[in-house]
Design a protein that fits this description.
The protein is an alpha/beta fold. The protein folds into two domains: about 5-130, Tetrapyrrole methylase, N-terminal domain (Cobalt-precorrin-4 Transmethylase, domain 1); about 130-280, Tetrapyrrole methylase, C-terminal domain (Methyltransferase, Cobalt-precorrin-4 Transmethylase, Domain 2), CATH 3.30.950.10. The protein is about 30% helix and about 15% strand. The protein has helices at about 30-40, 50-55, 75-90, 110-115, 130-135, 170-175, 190-195, 225-235, 250-255, 255-260, 275-280; strands at about 15-20, 40-45, 60-65, 95-100, 120-125, 150-155, 180, 205-210, 220-225, 240-245. The strands form two sheets. A five-stranded parallel beta sheet has the order 3-2-4-1-5, with helices on both faces. Helix 3 crosses helix 4 (about 110-115) and helix 6 (about 170-175) packs across helix 7 (about 190-195). The longest helix is centred in the N-terminal third of the chain and has 13 residues, at about 75-90. It is globular.
């Protein structure tokens, strides 16, 4: 019988693998990610990588913290990228482990370009991004045919730490039925004000999810108009994934983690009964 691990790639000395660790639950690691953890000599990891994922590293692997936290001393991105080059040139098998997906607001593209510039061989391993997987653990789908045919993913702050001016907030508000925001909690009052000014309903459902897919996961359901006030009162701390749109209403039916703890789910959260014959067509 062939062992599935025999078909996974070998991490070679001098290589860097840029790997997504998913939103937190180690069960959401890909096979390629687990394979990298079992081989790497050095693991350069972000603050968002769950400790349970790091515990899967091979015995003897060196863990290097390279996390960034808003408002706190953090390594500069250029220094992190050059550290990957340095480690690879020393003959190490280097795993750059990032929360979520390295190419979704993870600056993996910047690090990969530095590797290309310095002729370092690399591999990209996508991960489950928190904007999809983390919301799924909260019982919130990013799409549902009865609520939306569009979804926009955006970041709540740019390189300066401010709300990005290059985002067409009016266009997003008018054109996207569901908006998923990374790194937006700090500026949520400004962001919600812009969305409401652009025509979004003040009572539109909104949710914040912190520590998504982990035992510490917390979910706050609110509205655009009340978001800033409710977040402040809740005591929730970033990072959080934030979603705006009618899909938030589906959580009353799809909160599968809550159901496992005794929550009674609502069969028809959107206020209408589906037609089984039509659905099967």
């Amino acid at each position: 019988m062939v062992d599935w691990r025999d078909n996974l790639p070998e991490m070679k000395p001098g290589e860097v693998w840029l790997v997504g660790a998913g939103p937190g639950d180690p069960g959401l690691l890909t096979l390629h990610a687990a394979n990298a953890l079992s081989q790497a000599d050095v693991i350069v990891h972000d603050a968002l990588v769950n400790r349970d994922c790091l515990n899967l590293a091979r015995t003897g692997a060196v863990l290097e913290f390279a996390g960034k936290r808003g408002g706190k001393p953090s390594p500069k991105q250029r220094d992190i990228s050059l550290r990957l080059v340095e480690l690879a040139r020393s003959g190490q098998r280097v795993l750059r482990l990032k929360g979520g997906d390295p190419f979704v607001f993870g600056r993996g593209g910047e690090e990969a370009l530095t590797l290309v510039e310095n002729h370092i061989p690399f591999r990209i391993v996508p991960g489950v991004t928190v904007g999809i997987g983390g919301l799924a653990y909260a019982g919130i789908p990013v799409t549902h045919r009865d609520t939306n045919h569009t979804v926009t993913f955006l970041t709540g702050h740019d390189a300066t730490g401010l709300v990005p001016d290059r985002i067409d907030w009016d266009g997003v508000a008018r054109g996207s039925q569901v908006i998923v925001m990374y790194m937006a909690m700090k500026h949520i009052a400004t962001i919600t004000s812009r969305l409401i000014s652009a025509g979004r309903a003040p009572d539109e459902p909104m949710a914040f999810v912190t520590d998504a897919s982990t035992d510490q996961q917390k979910v706050l359901e609110t509205t655009l108009a009340r978001a800033a006030e409710d977040v402040a009162a809740s005591g929730l701390q970033p990072p959080a994934i934030v979603v705006v749109g009618q899909v938030v209403r589906l959580r009353s039916a799809l909160d599968w983690l809550g159901a496992a703890s005794g929550r009674v789910l609502t069969a028809d959260p959107l206020g209408h009964r589906s037609n089984p014959q039509k659905d099967s067509a």
